[in-house]
Design brief:
432 residues, alpha/beta, FAD/NAD(P)-binding domain, 2 domains, eight-stranded mixed beta sheet, 20 strands, 27% helix, Pyridine nucleotide-disulfide oxidoreductase
Length: 432
């Protein structure tokens, strides 16, 4: 059987192009700090937070405060992809960060409206998407679309920069507090995303050496030989970036081979039948079964586009892949493997995946009800069972919606449940 492998040129979309500015409505000057009260507070303005805010706007819920540490729509997400010099997203055009069921301009529509700004390769991807085939989305298109979505749904007017330090449910209100502000809210939606997974303590004896870092930290520009530890898409971008800079790369994988696939999880989990394997609203799904599915389906994988490049550079010696290699220790001399081999380089970078933020540290521990690293959520509404006015969207909802909850398409599914529940509680008028 012949398998189509996309060309690596798709990885080289331009970044930071000048996009036509979306017309901003005239609004009165607002205070420097958020208001003292609101119907809804959304913590996090990433793709999930943007989807929730846009959905509430359509449902007539306008007394909304959005709090984000960067103060920009999808700012932290884009900072991370730029740190990796990532030019395209694995999510296809159909997985747009908008609202399901409304006649908004969707991501593919937005790209077609700006056809003259796209490269021939990017235009071909849109045609592939229209024909129902797999496609990839340029980061530039995604970033411009997110700003467009934020403006037309008035999210930018309700967005304040701020680091939230606590979320305190009490009766029929929830207090959201942070650096210099307190907001008394009727409902709160936590869209916290994920944080990097740290290396096991056993790998690092004492302080982390200067020659060792994580994927979200700067890499020295004069690195001539880079060591990358990790098997996922982030690791692949690190390898690609180092090769592009002319460095030689050692790539350390625990698995016996790279895993190339279009999506980071099986495509069935983006459909209702896949989500039903986690959904206990009709029939109980044992917790152990869900854990087993998550363990199997959250395995690291890499986009197909990297495959030709990595095979070519491994053949010519610029890339050395250490497969089926368990790490024993990491120090200033390099990465020590379980078989005694020492992999040396100028700098070692960990790309070990991410950990969902489930509300621990913001909500009281008894409210989070953490179990095996996941929060205790109502499966009908995605509210915390012990705090029904606080909701979780994004990766924190994986044990209810399945592994696709981490992805943009899963954010829309979560948003539909959360926004409908909030609108009914607030008493907002129906659809616009």
């Amino acid at each position: 059987m012949t398998r189509f492998v996309p060309h690596p040129r798709l990885l080289a979309s331009p970044r930071h192009r000048d996009w036509p500015a979306c017309p901003q409505p005239d609004v009165p000057a607002r205070p420097v700090v958020p208001p003292a009260s609101a119907d809804v507070v959304i913590v996090g303005a990433g793709p999930a937070g943007l989807a929730v805010a846009a959905a509430l706007w359509h449902l007539g819920v306008h007394d909304v405060v959005v709090l984000d540490r960067t103060g920009a729509p999808v700012g932290r997400f884009l900072d991370r992809v730029d740190r990796l010099d990532q030019r395209v997203l694995r999510s296809p055009y159909e997985h747009h960060p908008g609202v399901e069921g409304y006649r908004d301009c969707e991501l593919r529509d937005f790209a077609r409206l700006h056809w003259s700004l796209l490269t021939p390769v990017e235009r071909r991807e849109i045609r592939m998407s229209q024909a129902g085939h797999r496609s990839v989305v340029p980061v530039d298109v995604f970033a411009a679309y997110c700003l467009h979505t934020a403006v037309i749904h008035r999210v930018t007017e309700r967005l304040w920069p701020g680091e939230v330090t606590s979320v305190e449910p009490a009766g029929d209100r929830v207090t959201v507090a942070g650096n210099g502000f307190r907001v008394d809210a009727g409902q709160v939606v936590l869209c916290l995303g994920e944080e990097r997974r740290d290396a096991p303590p056993a790998w690092l004896a004492g302080d982390r050496p200067a020659e060792v870092g994580y994927w979200d930290e700067p890499v020295p520009e004069d690195t001539g030989r880079q060591v990358v530890v990790g098997a996922g898409l982030t690791a692949a971008h690190l390898v690609h970036g180092a090769l592009d800079r002319g460095a030689r790369v050692d790539w350390v994988l625990r698995a016996d081979s790279e895993r190339y696939q279009c999506s980071d999880v099986n495509a069935s989990f983006f459909r209702a039948e896949g989500r039903s394997r986690f959904d206990s609203r009709r029939a109980p799904v044992p917790w152990a079964d869900r854990l087993a599915l998550m363990s199997r389906e959250r395995r690291a994988s890499v986009m197909f586009e990297f495959q030709p490049l990595f095979r070519a550079t491994e053949a010519d010696g610029r890339l050395t892949v250490h497969r089926a290699s368990e790490v024993r220790a990491v120090h200033d001399k390099g990465v020590e493997l379980a078989d005694g081999m020492l992999v040396t380089g100028d700098h070692t970078v960990f790309a070990l995946g991410t950990v969902p933020q489930i509300g621990t540290g913001l909500l009281p521990d008894d409210v989070v009800g953490a179990r095996d690293g996941w929060p205790d959520l109502d499966e009908r509404t995605l509210a915390y069972r012990r705090a029904p006015r606080v909701f979780a969207a994004g990766a924190a909802a994986c044990m209810v919606l399945g592994p696709a909850a981490r992805n943009i398409d899963g954010h829309r599914v979560a948003t539909a449940r959360i926004a409908a529940t909030i609108a009914a509680t607030v008493g907002a008028a129906g659809h616009d």
